[in-house]
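Run: sequence + nicotinamide-adenine-dinucleotide -> complex structure.
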Amino acid sequence: MGVLDGKVAIVTGAGQGLGRVEALELASHGASVVVNDLGTAADGTGSSEDPAHRVVKEIEEAGGKAVAAFGDVSDWEAARSIVRSAVDTFGDLNIMVNNAGFSRDGMIVKMTEDMFDSVLRVHVKGHFCMIKHTMDFWREKSKADGGAPLYGRLISTASDAFLMGNLGQPNYAAAKGGITFLTLSAARECQRFGATANVVLPRARTRMTDSGPWAAIFQKPEEGFDTFAPEHIGPVVAWLASPHAANVSGNLLQVWGKHVRVFERPQAALDHENDEPWTLESMQAVLGPFFEGKKPIEDSFALPMA
Ligand SMILES: NC(=O)c1ccc[n+]([C@@H]2O[C@H](COP(=O)([O-])OP(=O)(O)OC[C@H]3O[C@@H](n4cnc5c(N)ncnc54)[C@H](O)[C@@H]3O)[C@@H](O)[C@H]2O)c1
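>> structure
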């Protein structure tokens, strides 16, 4: 008996990297999995059906159930057909893991319109399309069941770029911020169906992080525990998808190696109500002391990994 027996999941971008690990993990706990992948290059160009086929085969060889669904998550109709393939093949949809994406890094002064648009499109519109078609299905299902709560989990993929606004990733940081707040809004809405929505912030070695400035941070150690192995990310996705997390919604979970951190909604660092309407001088009287001694955000690439 697996904790996800009888549940149906979609994992987008599951042909390799983190999505592959997540699809294998969900299947190992009993979920039937739709393996979506467009099979792009690391910069989002091109397409191939091979990666999704390979992961379906891996799941089946391990005794699980899976089907491939190609298609671009940021294409409205393709996203609808990925959702349909879960329902048509396995009869339901319970777990929607939005993971597909790519990065096209560069400083703002070097960034082209296409670099910005393509990264926003795959992440923000891609998450929206899949969440929208999933929630449409849940709405109809809930109505048909007289409003009874259903088993629903939305899991989104953000990044440190959202937490820190990484230097050289303005498009990706904006996209991951968009995903985070899209998911918090979805978390409020999907409660009416009995569903939850949360965000995962992974750190792992994949083709996205095994080159360029990231390679040194994420490299595999010659010996000892491999902190950035992508396999460490599977269990948090399975946990959020499981009955254990029925009341967990609207949270951000950061995971790497043996670490897990939970972030809640942004908290105020200063919360002050003035006696009188604001003037520049009274603003200075409150904010001046608050910011005294605090440094502006650093002009540095370094990711604080601790
Ligand atoms: N690797 C990390 O440390 C890290 C950190 C933070 C966030 N992330 C996020 O994790 C997710 C997975 O990244 P990864 O590191 O496994 O990268 P990856 O390149 O190994 O895998 C991404 C997969 O998404 C697929 N894909 C790309 N565009 C698609 C589209 N339009 N429709 C369907 N599939 C598409 C690709 O074909 C690829 O198989 C991404 O959202 C990424 O931003 C990764």
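>> summary
The mean pLDDT is 96. Residues 12-13, 15-19, 36-40, 42, 44, 51, 72-74, 99-102, 122, 126, 157, 159, 202-204, 206-209 surround nicotinamide-adenine-dinucleotide (CB under 6 Å).
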